[in-house]
Design brief:
Blueprint (H helix, E strand, L loop, with lengths): L6 E8 L16 H21 L4 E7 L16 E4 L5 H14 L3 E5 L8 H10 L5 E5 L5 E6 L17 H11 L4 E3 L14
Parallel strand pairs: 1-2, 1-4, 2-3, 5-7
Antiparallel strand pairs: 4-6, 5-6
Length: about 200
């Protein structure tokens, strides 16, 4: 019998610094207010991740962990890694490849979705036991969670990341690979002022 491959939950985050974090919210919130919200969402995401039924939690951050922007913001109880260079697709692909090549299954999330509870994270991890891919689409056409039991670069290349077709494109590419996919609930994330209520 094959051993069960562990699930690594990788949280992508930017440093919660005024003028650099959640800048699309600054028309509604001040730069300091947007940064404070980013810090709160990071803390909440970490709390949910710590309580989820996963084997490891990793914070994959921009800038790198040794950058002064992270002073006072980094936890000591999770693994830390830098996102590296490139667009969002290249950064996500790098983390997904690293985990799957290490023999792990991986859940990729950001910090923008308060609806990603520990229960939903645990359920997504459980879904990967029998599937190649699990995804929670976002209301805006993106996704708030992508889980993979295997890696293929086509899931991340040539995607308009701020557009309304991210989840649909990703699902179409997974289908073209012949992968088994679990599509979870469509959830809300917080990117622009209209998302705040």
């Amino acid at each position: 019998m094959r051993p069960v491959r562990p699930v690594r939950l990788v949280i992508f985050a930017k440093a919660p610094v005024a003028g650099k974090a959640k800048t699309r919210l600054i028309p509604k919130l001040s730069a300091a207010g947007a940064a404070a919200l980013a810090a709160r969402m990071l803390a909440d995401t970490l709390a949910q991740a710590r309580g989820a039924a996963v084997d490891a939690v990793e914070l994959c951050i921009d800038p790198a962990p040794d950058h002064p922007d992270w002073q006072g913001h980094l936890p000591t109880d999770v693994a830390l890694s830098g996102q590296g260079v490139g667009d969002l697709g290249e950064r996500l692909a790098r983390a997904a490849r690293r985990a799957t090549e290490a023999g792990e299954r991986v859940l990729l999330v950001g910090t923008d979705c308060p609806e990603l509870t520990r229960e939903r994270l645990g359920a997504a991890a459980a879904s990967l036991r029998g599937r190649d891919c699990v995804i929670h689409p976002a209301r805006d056409g993106g996704y708030v969670l992508l889980g993979l039991s295997r890696f293929h670069p086509s899931l991340f290349a040539g995607i308009a990341w701020s557009g309304p077709m991210v989840a649909e494109t990703t699902l179409a590419r997974a289908a073209a690979l012949g992968w088994s996919v679990q599509v979870g609930e469509t959830l809300h994330d917080i990117d622009v002022p209209a998302d705040l209520p």
